[in-house]
Design a protein that fits this description.
Number of domains: 1
Radius of gyration: 19 Å
Order of helices and strands: HEHEHEHEHEHEHEH
Strand content: 5-15%
Shape: globular
Structural class: alpha/beta
Bound molecules: adenosine monophosphate
Number of helices: 8
């Protein structure tokens, strides 16, 4: 019996190894999380409070932060919290923003690139999942780029929003409207993972990143 189970397991492994690359599940882990968030702290003190909690939790779980390098707004709050708790913060920033002296000076790694496009591509490549916190145009732009790349099957990394104080409710309503008006396939709704608690959000992203290639 034991021999039979061993044989079946080996046959299954061999069958998987013969699959063409694109059919093979790609197991990933949540080693680095890319966070998009405001260059301002926002009106509700809950945003900075929960951003600090996220930073401390990332450090405690051994998950590296990839982010836009700013030392201002929620970005600065997040990076400071990660570094204070002994975690890793990797910044990617275009030279133009460094020149405006907006770069955090104490990061674990700093990548200076030539353009915003190059920055987004490098942030995406370095991360295993993406998370948006409250923010403005920049946060929305980065989050939607990752969602559209997922829709185009350019990556299969999970994208989440931390819906603090219902901040993203209007965005979720807009997505529902896109589906209702046939601009978005209903199955694409699941690309966006929504939670309002830091620990639960990280659990969900970790699980989604570990599943490997999701059914896109
Ligand atoms: P916003 O949501 O418009 O405040 O923009 C924040 C997002 O855009 C962040 O996720 C950053 O990647 C990027 N960003 C905007 N302003 C800056 C800045 N001054 N320094 C670094 N990144 C920035």
């Amino acid at each position: 019996m034991g021999e039979c189970v061993f044989f079946l397991a080996r046959a299954a492994r061999m069958a998987v190894s013969r699959l063409p690359n694109r059919k093979r599940p790609k197991p990933t882990m949540l080693k680095n999380l890319c966070v998009f968030c405001g260059s301002r702290v926002g009106a509700n003190p809950l945003y900075a409070e929960q951003t600090r909690r996220l930073g401390a939790t990332l450090a405690r779980r051994g998950i590296g932060l990839v982010y836009g390098t700013g030392h201002i707004g929620l970005m600065g709050v997040l990076a400071d919290a990660v570094l204070e708790q002994g975690g890793e913060a990797i910044g990617v920033i275009p030279q133009a923003l460094v020149d405006r002296e907006l770069a955090h000076q104490g990061l674990t790694q700093l990548h200076v690139v030539t353009s915003m496009h190059e920055r987004k591509a490098l942030m995406a490549a370095r991360a295993d999942a993406f998370l948006a916190l409250p923010g403005g145009y920049g946060t929305a732009d980065e989050t939607f780029e990752m969602l559209t790349w997922a829709q185009l099957k350019l990556h299969a990394k999970p994208v989440g929003v931390l819906n603090l104080a219902g901040f993203f409710d209007p965005l979720l309503a807009w997505i529902d409207r896109c589906i209702a008006e046939d601009f978005l396939k209903p199955r694409y709704r699941q690309f966006l993972l929504v939670e309002n608690d830091v620990e639960r959000m990280l659990d969900v992203l970790t699980k989604a990143a570990s599943v490997g290639e999701r059914s896109l």
